[in-house]
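Tip: read the tokens left to right.
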């Protein structure tokens, strides 16, 4: 089974799992369902950017590129969540968000291993920046907040994430687009503040 098919089945199963508790507990008193917008900033400079770049397919097998730094980018998305009336400190949430931390123009090293047909070697030069987009789907986050009945609510959340990445390269010799889908971990730490009882 291809990774994309596996990802699609995982998403569908997770969405069904998300809908079942809402249907089961919606009639109870004090149930808390919410829809929220998301707006923020992605700070890839905190990490190493794009690492372990494998150029196999463009160059001979085993060819690599040095880590590539990314730009700071706006982040936007949406959330749908539900807190259980029996345990108001615990809830579930689905979210989707998008960001475009484009690859910076920077000094880059390319290494090609020797082979019977290629001499191999290492070259360093400045590569132009590339367009980079990451769409994240987190179908089932487990959310924990405390205290649940106050206007200011610290919270943490954790769940699986499906990360859809696409690079559109404009560097000479590397033109074209490449996509990748990976399953990983999505985490959150934050504060919610209720300006009114329902907002």
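Filled-in amino acids:
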């Amino acid at each position: 089974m291809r990774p994309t098919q596996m990802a699609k089945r995982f998403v569908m199963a997770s969405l069904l799992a998300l809908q079942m508790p809402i249907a089961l507990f919606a009639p109870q008193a004090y149930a808390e369902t919410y829809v929220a917008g998301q707006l923020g900033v992605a700070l890839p400079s905190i990490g190493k950017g794009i690492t372990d770049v494998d150029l196999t397919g463009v160059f001979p097998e085993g060819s690599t590129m040095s880590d590539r730094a990314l730009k700071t980018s706006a982040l936007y998305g949406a959330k749908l969540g539900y807190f259980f009336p029996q345990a108001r400190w615990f809830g579930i949430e689905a979210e989707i968000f998008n960001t475009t931390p484009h690859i910076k123009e920077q000094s880059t090293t390319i290494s090609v291993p020797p082979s019977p047909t290629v001499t191999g070697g290492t070259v360093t030069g400045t590569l132009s920046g590339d367009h980079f987009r990451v769409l994240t789907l987190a179908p089932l986050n487990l959310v924990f907040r405390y205290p649940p009945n106050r206007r200011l609510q610290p919270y943490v959340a954790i769940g699986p994430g499906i990360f859809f990445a696409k690079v559109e390269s404009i560097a000479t010799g590397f033109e074209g687009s490449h996509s990748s889908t990976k399953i990983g971990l999505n985490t959150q730490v934050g504060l919610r503040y209720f300006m009114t009882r329902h907002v």
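The radius of gyration is 22 Å. Residues 3-25 form the longest helix (23 residues).
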